[in-house]
Amino acid sequence: MYRFLLTPRWWGINVFAVLAIPFCIFMGSWQLSRFDARVASHHQQENRTADAKAAAPRPLQSLLPVDQVTSGRQASARGRFDATHQLLVPDRTLQGKNGDQQGFYVLTLLRTDGGKALPVVRGWLPGDANATADTAKVPAPPIGEVTVVGALQASENEGTAGVRAGGGLPKGQLGMISAASLVNIVPYGVYDAWITLTDPPAPLRAVPPAAVEGTGLDMKAFQNLGYTGEWFVFAGFVLFMWFRLVRREAEAAKDAALGILPEGPEGPEGPEGPEGAVGPVGAAAEEGATGEGATGTEVRAGR
What we know:
Layout: H1 8-54, E1 58-59, E2 74-96, E3 99-112, E4 117-126, H2 132-135, E5 145-154, H3 179-182, E6 193-197, H4 219-257, H5 280-302
Helix pairs in contact: 1-4
């Protein structure tokens, strides 16, 4: 009954099923492993953040370049604030008691002894960076040589939340905190990193360190989980269709062996019905032919 599985047509179907099902299972397992890795990375980052808050600050140079391990660590740097290049970073949201609040960062460059400047986010203020009443609340940076301590952060990019990479901002504002954005604003080199102060001066509020990119449970993580389900569904669909085709072919072969042919549009045996059967029209024609023959015989006999 199942000899049809060895035909060339079914060889192609079988090979496709044998290759497609393991491939779908492999891809689904790989997507699931990516989701598990993101979950594990998220937990590790949370643990690092908790450890970083309790750990003693380390010199800036010992934590560069910023990576998944050093991001969020407490860093210390010594130098002088450049008050002439203090910048506001607009449209930044901070979690408050009543939900998210819109405001802006206050960023000041710290000229270190190494010659380069370190972008320091001294804090966050609610309001509009274009409103004079709100910007008037920004405190002046300390004068003289100071030591700052804060959470180390990697340079922002176009995918970072709140970034305005399109430009068009007024003078004194910055859309993205990165060395690439600052190099055209200040006449000196800038570190490819920045820190957010742990204890900012009033009325500024501390900006919490952001999670390292690619370590949080963001939309990409749940996309991996969705792709996992899709690949496993594809594997099940291929298996289901293979069994369905085999069953249909086996039933057709069984019917053919029993002499049961599939019905056509005009009956099981074509337009004339079963072989040897005579319809009403055929019977009438046959009867007329017989009568005509009998009459002819009688006339000849009379002559």
